[in-house]
What we know:
The chain is an alpha/beta fold. Helices cover 25% and strands 30% of the residues. It is elongated.
Amino acid sequence: xxxxxxxxxxxxxxxxxxxxxxxxxxxxxxxxxxxxxxxxxxxxxxxxxxxxxxxxxxxxxxxxxxxxxxxxxxxxxxxxxxxxxxxxxxxxxxxxxxxxxxxxxxxxxxxxxxxxxxxxxxxxxxxxxxxxxxxxxxxxxxxxxxxxxxxxxxxxxxxxxxxxxxxxxxxxxxxxxxxxxxxxxxxxxxxxxxxxxxxxxxxxxxxxxxxxxxxxxxxxxxxxxxxxxxxxxxxxxxxxxxxxxxxxxxxxxxxxxxxxxxxxxxxxxxxxxxxxxxxxxxxxxxxxxxxxxxxxxxxxxxxxxxxxxxxxxxxxxxxxxxxxxxxxxxxxxxxxxxxxxxxxxxxxxxxxxxxxxxxxxxxxxxxxxxxxxxxxxxxxxxxxxxxxxxxxxxxxxxxxxxxxxxxxxxxxxxxxxxxxxxxxxxxxxxxxxxxxxxxxxxxxxxxxxxxxxxxxxxxxxxxxxxxxxxxxxxxxxxxxxxxxxxxxxxxxxxxxxxxxxxxxxxxxxxxxxxxxxxxxxxxxxxxxxxxxxxxxxxxxxxxxxxxxxxxxxxxxxxxxxxxxxxxxxxxxxxxxxxxxxxxxxxxxxxxxxxxxxxxxxxxxxx
Length: 606
């Protein structure tokens, strides 16, 4: 049978250290004549030269330090063929210190073997690995009860392990589970049924492999692609701007309408691009590709692309997760970590620990708040900006994340639920507005080329009577004289005309109520977006802007198009401004400094 026509499948084999995973695989390779010619004899001769007993595990453990210590450190890949399929078997480490490597192997698998030593019985890591397999979404599992020769092939001992571990897996909602009694060293029930266990007439490890159901390619799932990069071309009149990435699920066709998250902006696929050859009409899961858009919108690495008319991803910056912690130090509340979801990287903090779970017993401790090494927990995370993702029940692979601490992977898990926060309503409105936003035929790049600058919102803020209007108007004049499309707008222009509202000082006019100020911020954000679409540099003076108000405006117009300037020595809110001008006595001089800052950052091009 032509191997190119066979389906392929990834299988992970895991379990507690020294329970015989590598031995089971090595024996299967040997008994099915799947080893390279002379490999078995070569390993046996090497064992004789070094006066060490031959182990079938040595066929896999190629790394010197693994053979010296007798443990599997990395997730070794073994290529194996049957008449039905081509397999990649991932031999994941069982030692608790290498749990991270086990998770890496399991995350790429469609089914799993979990090995338990019949003599030692179920160990803590046996349960921990079962829990992690369930959390990673692996539903097909075969529990291989190994080393039956050490318990004299006892059916009673095998049945005890089967009953006990089945109950544990049932609590994890893992019901598609098989059990097989084997001896990897002696070859019992590996490739053929054992004469030493006449009471067993079920599958062998080899026959069960082909009974695992191959997961359908996720072509029928909603389209998802994480943006890897944006490539721009300028040579020889090539003006393409290609959004590049790998398709995670679904199908993308030329002419499809797509939405970029978390912004919610949409465009249409003009062409599908590949590295070499003619452009295909469509691409599917696993394909590295790129596409150009009919309407150029701002997109960047980390954005999640979906198709219009399909189930859309979640967007938020507060969410409940299930995680396993592998860091050397406990997960700390208030500390900055890096959260990686797809191609996105964002600063993250632990907001709350709901419960810590004992992965070996599934008992929970609702009082324990510290998540230590090898703990499993349910937590709430916050990120410093909104990100796009899917929930585990919708698209399991798109809900997975890893946590980076000091350049090392310290944990990982799945996103369970979006938690509503103060920005949830604004975020929903912005996505809806962006989806419905109608644009003209002039692209943003054309406007930049014609005007000589990028569109930008400059929010000049600070305490009352610090000179915000003077600096703002001086900056407007300076930019206008330079030829920029710039104009100043006072914040009170957003009032509803009732009296003379004042934002900060109750002695001047009518002090705004909290909901009125929120409404004015919303109006400012929408009007700013309109100005940005027209290519303008909009300058707005606003007293004592808060961090949350800044985030609300940035959510509407996109963060890269907003700069905040604080006037005065003292910061009286939680805002972290882009620029701070302490000396505000000379408006013209300060306007020159801001102009220089805009030029240095490439906002003003000429």
